[in-house]
Amino acid sequence: MTTPRKPDGPAGRFAYDGLERVIHEKARLGILTSLVTNPRGLLFNDLKEMCALTDGNLSRHLQVLHEAGLVEVWKGFQHNRPQTLCRLTPDGRRRFLEYINVLENVIADALAAKPEAAAGEELSEGWSPA
Amino acid sequence: MTTPRKPDGPAGRFAYDGLERVIHEKARLGILTSLVTNPRGLLFNDLKEMCALTDGNLSRHLQVLHEAGLVEVWKGFQHNRPQTLCRLTPDGRRRFLEYINVLENVIADALAAKPEAAAGEELSEGWSPA
Predict the structure, then answer these.
(1) Are B85 and B41 in contact (CB under 8 A)?
(2) Does residue A1 sit at the B interface (CB-CB below 8 Å)?
(3) Residue A102: CB partners within 8 Å, gap ≥ 6?
(4) Is some CB atom of chain A closer than 8 A to the CB atom of B59?
(5) From A87, which residue of chain B is nearest by alpha-carbon distance?
(6) CB-based contact A119 B93, cutoff 8 Å
(7) What would the mean pLDDT of A60-67 be, rounded to a whole number?
(8) CB-based contact, B21 to chain A, within 8 Å
(9) How far is residue A35's CA from residue A55's CA, in Å, rounded to a whole number?
(10) Considering only A21-30, A45-54, A72-81, B14-23, which range has the smallest mean pLDDT?
(11) What is the CA radius of gyration of chain B?
């Protein structure tokens, strides 16, 4: 039997304000991770393939990332064909690594949970499902 | 000067399908991290404070988490007052730890980026801003 305890830690302990929303969105997180590991930039079609996105989805997310100042988009030619090249901006790289830093805190917090005190224990009397 | 290279790795390498969307949303990630570190459950007001959420926001996110089978919500009394108790379900705990596992892969990928090859290098000729 178990009853809730007053938690440790200050208010806002789990607010994670540093998780910038424009970066946190799942598809954009994949795009930015691709780009940070490919600092020379990636061609649109390669990026699309690595992130398993459609043309439309990738375009839309790139526009959001570009407007947020995280990504540069260039037009040019390679292998005699018109190409679109995407790259992190220096500011985008810095903000992405800050975001990753906060993500590391989330993981450290989550893994600090005591494994012996698992969910599913019986509640003490007097509680009923909401 | 720099030109993009063909990236390494298989298609979908950065799709991160295991990042379950219901868990990934920023506020819900905070709620679930609070709950996994407090396996006996948390009272609504404590959870609200730790995650720096309003009553309305916390209620809405708890409903989403409850409908997804991640969280239990109980009504009862503590300190002579009606209280709402929130707890991870056993399935919620398992899925959250799976999610954290994928998040660890994202971080490993992001930090594998070679620091010497920073963003902002000059592009080779023939590229212009889109």
Answers:
(1) yes
(2) no
(3) A16, A18, A19
(4) no
(5) B119
(6) yes
(7) 98
(8) yes
(9) 17
(10) A72-81
(11) 21
* Residues of A whose CB is below 8 A from B90: 118-120
Residues B84-101 have pLDDT tens digits of 999 999 999 999 999 999
The average pLDDT across A111-126 equals 69
Residue B112's closest chain A neighbor by CA?
A37
Q: Which two tokens stand for residue A126?
A: 């007097």
Chain B hits for A87, CB-CB cut-off 8 Å, are 119
pLDDT in tens, B14-42: 999 999 999 999 999 999 999 999 999 99
Task: Please choose, from the candidates A103, A50, A95, the residue with its C-alpha nearest in 3D space to the C-alpha of residue A70.
Answer: A95
> Between chains, do B85 and A33 touch, taking CB under 8 Å as contact?
no
Residue linked to tokens 């309003």: B54
- pLDDT value of residue B1: 46
Q: How many CA atoms lie within 13 A of A103 on its CB side?
A: 27
Is the CB of A104 less than 8 angstroms away from the CB of B100? no
Compare all CA atoms of chain A with the CA of B104 and give the residue at the minimum distance: A107
Contacts (Cβ under 8 Å, ≥6 apart) of B38: A4, A5, A7
pTM: predicted TM-score of the whole model, two decimal places: 0.88
Residue A81: how many CB atoms within 10 A of its CB? 9
